Amino acid sequence: MKRPKVSVSLITYNHEKYISACLDSVVNQIVGFDLEIVVSDDCSTDGTAEIVSDYAVRYPGLIRPILRKQNLGLVKNAVSTIESCTGEYIALMEGDDFWIDSNKLQVQADYLDNNADCAFCFTNNYTFLEEDPGTMKLFFTDQNKPPQKFDLDFFIEHNTIIPNNTKMFRREVQQATFPDWYYSCLNWDWVLHIMQSLHGKMGYIDIVTLAYRRHPGAVFMSKDRIRVLLNGINTAMAINKHLDFKYNNRFGNLWWEYRELAFVYLENGEVRNFVKYYLKHIASIKKFEQFKLKDDFWLLRKNLFGGRNK
């Protein structure tokens, strides 16, 4: 069998309301090369698997379904689906979003063909609230648009955000194996960008290809603040070690995260955890301007006394 030029790694879970629009946007891509679409349903409890199966019948030889009988979880499903792809280039997609540019895959494949120094490329996207499609906003504007090419140093220094479902990468830059801690990362895509960028630059193509849907069922939106902050702290420490502490100034400097976590605990009435993480915050401060005593005193008073004047 001839190896496809591009594989689409599409993961889905309980996306019955959205998966048809997503799949339509993928199968309607206009390309001049062989394409495969690997769709992995992570044991959905709604009708997602049936819809995926129907599309596979309608598009034989194009859509390859993986219908899991046990739930792997988001990250393991994503990694396993990527591993199942056989294309030279791999584009990422999730079942609750959809592409709005029918030339997306062709443009990105051409870019990687012509930019051998890039490990992957990505584009701009629109973000919108499910309940109000009229809220569509560009992710990148003139104020925050990244350069056409940049490396890991720039990515970390500027805390660059890359819309994951606009991304296409070379198959050979994918990790062969991942450390155990990776599978518990809520921001697994951010870590993936870092790991892949060790093999080349990141390329930005200034076109809009994705409609990113924000809805209550979205994985990251549904996580509580404490879990998000704790996970972010643990991920930062793990990636810091993984990179041999080369970027310790960024990943070892977690004063802001500890402060945020401390006051979330205080809002929840967990005074012991507030004290624990506020002390971690103080111990992490390296610059005087990072110590916000006046602001912290106000927050403390607000949580203890409901903001009343004393």
Write the H/E string, N to C. EHEHEHEEHEEEHEHEHHHHH
Q: What level of helicity do the residues show?
A: 25-40%
Strand content: 15-25%
Number of helices: 11
What is CATH's topology name of the largest domain? Answer: Spore Coat Polysaccharide Biosynthesis Protein SpsA, Chain A
Unreliable spans are: none
Major sheet size, sense and barrel closure? 10 strands, mixed
Number of domains: 2
Approximate shape: globular
The name of the CATH superfamily of the largest domain reads: Spore Coat Polysaccharide Biosynthesis Protein SpsA, Chain A
Radius of gyration, taken over Cα atoms and rounded to an integer in Å? 21 Å
CATH architectural name of the largest domain: Alpha-Beta Complex
Please count the beta strands (DSSP E, at least 2 residues each).
Answer: 10
Distance between the ends:
77 Å
Structural class determined from secondary elements: alpha/beta
Could you describe the 3D structure shown?
The chain has 310 residues and is α/β, with parallel strands linked by helices. The chain has 2 domains: 6-214, Spore Coat Polysaccharide Biosynthesis Protein SpsA, Chain A, CATH 3.90.550.10; 225-305, no CATH class. It is built from 11 helices and 10 strands. Strands 1, 2, 3, 4, 5, 6, 7, 8, 9 and 10 form a 10-stranded mixed sheet that branches. Helix 7 packs antiparallel against helix 9. It is globular. 33% of the residues are buried.
